[in-house]
Design goal:
The chain is α+β, with helices and mostly antiparallel strands and 723 residues long. The protein has 4 domains: 5-149, Gcn5-related N-acetyltransferase (GNAT) (Aminopeptidase, 3-Layer(aba) Sandwich); 186-324, 3-Layer(aba) Sandwich (Rossmann fold), CATH 3.40.50; 331-469, Gcn5-related N-acetyltransferase (GNAT) (Aminopeptidase); 562-717, Archaeosine Trna-guanine Transglycosylase, Chain: A, domain 4 (Roll). Helix 10 (218-227) runs antiparallel to helix 13. The chain is built from 28 helices and 31 strands. The strands form 6 sheets. It has a 9-stranded mixed beta sheet with strand order 8-19-20-18-17-16-15-14-13, with helices on both faces. Strands 1-2-3-4-5-7-6 form a 7-stranded mixed beta sheet, with helices on both faces. The radius of gyration is 27 Å and the shape is globular. The longest helix is centred in the middle third of the chain and has 18 residues, at 273-290.
């Protein structure tokens, strides 16, 4: 294998672009034709790498790629004739795999003409043939799409050697920060809105409008108003109808635009045409950063060239419509009640599988291209003693997702789950969330069990939701990036006196040891949960992350307090499905299908519910009972506009409802929550009074409760307190 240096920085790569273009133009049959501008833009975005020989600086090969944080797409990989059969391409590809895993990317894909010898290269480097599709009309070729799933954190597996430190299994437990399941709201640039409303770019930008959630900035409307030449501009009217972020404070815009101008090296001349454009671009980005948008979709090459700076310094992801459009545009008694919700004027229904649906489900699985053994596993009803469960999601009459769960045939073995979602549809995120919410709903209380998950390779939405729920790769002797994902599920509250049995079950399922006794609340919240390999020194995992691994289970160590939050029964029917006694005939809001939901209340009280707080939901008249528990994942006081723009889809209040709850300054407090579990025996108001758990607010407003009060509610809800 020859030695090469792989250059990645724009300043190092740009001098070689002319040589790269010359080599690519001489091999258009294999690489296709692209203008020099394309290569320069890729270099500026750090998406064009060049392999050079040390000393001479001679080009040996190059790699051009794109994609997003979830999936990288190899556009071109090429080795010059003088460097063939020396491992140059493999070295560049391995470097891309390492880069992807460092960035928590889930997979890499590559499109290769079926008649090229290069197909064997991808197989040798761990890529599997994902599908074959027709190429362009002019070439009349078939295109093989190859996929390699990258490594994800592992938890389960055999113990490592005693001298390993820190234990890799514990070190690998990582989760995203607040909120844990964000809506990933993307802000659209003006050029993308133009393409969407005029149905250009092969429908990629238009797809974003339906894929939700998207917004625009106030600066975009101003930009259109400045450039519009017609008094009654249909395009301007359509753009004004799109969801819009509120205007950030002027001083914050000035601070952010100044910092961005320096970071991006833009002109400070505000009077020139270029300067006016720069100022507008900076206002777009400042609004995105101020409102903590997930990403910005644009075709502006200069903004795209600073994508890494914007992500590293400001946490803002920048992408093109092609990066986000789905690569697969083809095919297409926990939580047992039927849920129907309205999404963008479409009805999405989640419910149990009926015998009449089996033929339609078989057709859905076949349409996804699943092999016969996978289809049979999903359709298998189990036995009368150990029945399997299925949950389907329909868009109208069309099945768009399914989950199945089969209990173990041998006690102590994992439950076997399958989840398949038609990810080319805009509703795929909500579909996946609903299926996983059903899947991890506890089938038993006070017992730890494990679910092994099978899903379709390359389905990134499904895999990401699984990771967010606490699924982790199974680490075995022959495990790899495509190994099974598994999760521990614990139902209800884990109390100190149950810690020993829990620890034994945890070790049996994972090979990992916990401390011999449950830490106190101050220890757990301050230092985390100690997890160790065999007798090796332990590594500590934050309590929030540990609870996600065993969700929806929650720990109740000595000293942990909670908050009682009142909910009207009419809202609880949609926000808290486990409390529903009779399903409504009317469609719910989208939150009824979500894994993480939002609650809005009086401004300024977000400090009452910091991340990780245990929430007891109290249903007011006529129910008057504590009926469900959950865990707060995020809380903040927001402007009513920001609350509507960022969290309303996860809640059950309308925009008008949120506005009525705002204070005189137009602010409202919101918190999001997960790990929602119904209390097996709802605790009535009279019982709560008897247990001395009703404070001066009398459950009219949210109020904190002590550890002892929370413990009494939990024990009463489990039927473990004497009446």
């Amino acid at each position: 294998m020859t030695r090469v240096t792989i250059l990645k920085q724009p300043g190092d790569v740009l001098p070689y672009v002319d040589q790269i273009v010359a080599a690519a133009d001489a091999h258009t049959r294999e690489l296709g034709f692209f203008t020099p501008t394309v290569y320069r833009q890729s270099a500026r975005r750090r998406r064009l790498w060049v392999a050079t020989r040390p000393g001479s600086g001679e080009v040996a090969g190059f790699l051009r790629f794109g994609g997003t944080h979830q999936q990288l797409k190899v556009f071109q990989i090429f080795t010059l004739d003088t460097a063939r059969r020396q491992g140059v391409a493999g070295r560049m590809l391995n470097e891309l795999v390492r880069y992807g895993e460092q960035q928590s990317v889930l997979s890499i894909t590559a499109r290769v003409a079926a008649d090229l010898a290069a197909n064997q290269f991808w197989v040798r480097h761990g890529f599997a043939l994902h599908r074959t599709e027709p190429g362009g009309r002019t070439t009349n070729r078939e295109i093989n799409v190859y996929l390699r799933e990258l490594d994800v954190p592992s938890l389960f597996g055999r113990a490592s050697p005693l001298d390993e430190s820190p234990p890799p299994a514990a070190e690998a437990i990582t989760f995203r920060d607040k909120p844990r399941l964000p809506a990933r709201r993307w802000v659209l640039d003006l050029n993308v809105v133009f393409d969407a409303l005029r149905q250009r770019d092969r429908g990629q930008s238009l797809w974003l409008l339906g894929a939700a959630p998207i917004v625009v900035t106030a600066e975009l409307i101003r930009e259109l108003e400045r450039t519009s030449t017609e008094p009654d501009d249909d395009f301007l009217r359509a753009a004004r109808s799109l969801p819009r972020l509120p205007e950030p404070p002027a001083d914050q815009v000035a601070r952010l635009t100044s910092a961005l101008r320096d970071s991006m090296g833009l002109t400070s001349d505000a009077t020139s045409k270029r300067g006016i454009t720069d100022t507008s671009d900076l206002c777009h980005l400042a609004a995105c950063i101020y409102h903590r948008a997930y990403g910005f979709v644009t075709r502006d090459g200069r903004i795209l060239s600073h994508a890494e700076v914007l992500r590293d310094q400001y946490g803002l992801r920048v992408a093109t419509p092609a990066d986000l459009a789905p690569s697969d545009s083809g095919a297409g008694d926990a939580g047992a009640s039927t849920v129907t919700a309205e999404l963008d004027h479409r009805l999405l229904t989640g419910g149990s599988l009926n015998d009449d649906d089996r033929a339609a489900l078989a057709n859905f699985l076949e349409r996804l291209g699943l092999p016969a053994d996978r289809r049979d596993a999903v359709l298998n009803p189990g036995t009368t003693q150990q029945p399997a469960e299925q949950r389907v999601v329909r868009l109208g009459d069309r099945i768009v997702g399914v989950a199945s769960l089969a209990p173990p045939t041998i006690l102590g073995q994992p439950w076997i789950a399958h989840v398949y979602v038609e990810e080319s549809r805009p509703e795929s995120q909500v579909t996946a969330e609903h299926l996983f919410d059903w899947l991890i709903g506890p089938r038993t209380f006070g017992k730890l069990y494990r679910i092994d998950l099978h899903s379709e390779a390359g389905k990134l939405t499904t895999k990401q939701v699984a990771l967010d729920c606490g699924f982790r790769r199974v680490q075995t002797d022959n495990g790899g990036p495509d190994a099974t994902l598994s999760k521990l599920v614990y139902g209800g509250f884990l109390l100190p006196d149950g810690w020993r049995n829990f620890s034994a079950d945890f070790k049996e399922q994972t090979g990992l040891r916990l401390a011999p006794s449950m830490p106190t609340w101050s220890e757990a919240s301050g230092k985390g949960i100690e997890i160790s390999q065999a007798e090796a020194a332990g590594n500590r995992t934050p309590l929030f992350d540990f609870e996600t691994l065993i969700s929806p289970g929650l720990l109740l160590p000595v000293g942990r307090t909670g908050v009682v939050v009142p909910v009207r029964p009419s809202y609880a029917e949609q926000l808290l499905p486990p409390t529903v006694k009779q399903s409504s005939l009317l469609p719910d809001r989208e939150a009824a299908l979500r894994l993480e939901r939002a609650y809005f209340f009086r401004a300024g009280r977000h400090g009452l519910l910091p991340r990780g707080t245990i929430v007891v939901f109290y249903l007011s008249e006529p129910r008057m009972e504590a009926a469900a528990v959950a865990r707060a994942t995020f809380s903040a006081t927001l402007s009513k506009e920001e609350a509507v723009a960022t969290l309303s889809r996860q809640g059950v209040l309308t925009s008008a409802d949120i506005e009525t709850r705002a204070d005189a300054e137009g602010r409202v407090t919101a918190f999001t929550f997960d790990s929602l579990t119904g209390i097996p025996h709802p605790v009535s108001y009279s019982e709560l009074k008897r247990l001395d758990c009703v404070g001066p607010a009398n459950y009219v407003a949210a109020e904190p409760i002590s550890h002892d009060q929370l413990l009494r509610i939990v024990l009463a809800g489990l039927g473990e307190l004497d009446s």
